Amino acid sequence: MLTRVQLQEIADTMKQMFPDAHCELTHQNPFELVVAVALSAQATDALVNKVTPGLFEAFPTVEAMATAEVSEIETLIKRIGLYRNKAKNVKALSEKIVNEHDGIVPSDRTSLEALPGVGRKTANVVLSVAFHEPAFAVDTHVERVSKRLGICRWKDNVRQVEETLMKKFPRDEWSQLHHQFIFFGRYHCKAQRPACETCPLLHMCREGKKRMKSTKVTT
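C-alpha cells predicted for Endonuclease III (219 residues):
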C-alpha cells in the first residue's frame, strides 16, 4: 500500500514530466469528441485523427451524421478496427442525440452512457474534456501505469481502478492527472518497452524493479 507521500510523489512527477498533457483526439466540439472517443476503442488516437477529418468534412453536424448511410460512414473509417460496428454506433448515437436531446450532446453521465457505443470511459472523457467535470477516465495506459506502480491491484477491473484513483487523488486533479497518466503510459511507461532505466519512479515500481533485475541476470 502506497503512502500519501508516495502518491504525492507520483502526481508531482507526472506533472513535471508532462505539464501540458491533454486530449490528443482532434475535435472542435462535444459531438466530434464523442464520436472520436467512440472510434478510439481498440485503436490509437493517431489513427483516429487520420480518419475523423474526412468523416467530419462529409458529415459536419450531428444532424448530417444521423441521416448518413452506415455504409458511407464505414467507407470513411474502415482503416480503424471494428469499423462496421463503430459505424453503426456513430449513426445510432447521432440519431439519439438529435431525437432525444435536440441535437445537443448531453452533459450528464446517465444520458451519455445511454448513447450507443458510449461506455463509462467515453463518458468520463467527454465530461472531463468537453464539460470540465472532474473525472478519471481509465484506458489501457491508465490501468497499466496504476497497476505497475502499485496504486491498484493486478486483479482490479477497470471500474475498481477508477474508484481507487478517485480515492487516492484530489478531485480537482482528476482530469489533468488522467491525461498525465495517459502520457506517462503512452510515451514513457510503454506496454512492451517501458523506459525503466530512466524512470524517476523506478524506486516504487514493482514491475520496473522486476524488469531491471531480469535484465541484470540475463546480461
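Residues 83-101 form the longest helix (19 residues).
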